[in-house]
Amino acid sequence: MNCAQLIGLVAHLAYWNVFGHFNKLPLDLYHRRQIFISFSSIRDQLDAKYRGKLSYYILLVPMLLLAIRLEIEVIFKNQYPKFFSEEHHEKIAMKLINDLIT
What are the distances in angstroms from CA 19 to CA 58, 64, 89? Predict the structure, then answer.
């Protein structure tokens, strides 16, 4: 399992879906879909590897989602400290990011 690749793909997708409209050269829908497909492919590989194992769905998937959420939050808060210093901006951005992850 390549957690770093999974987190990186989610971070890119979150950036382009939440903050992408601020970028002068936004990523088009086709490439955003490609990121989603890559993410889904990794998830499908995990599902196939652990098919039929109850501990995967009870323990590993929730822990993986939690790790992704925490890592994405750290990435964005460290990268954009001024933006996230305002409580209103942080609440809206984190809700959008968490909705994307969900």
Answer: 33, 24, 12
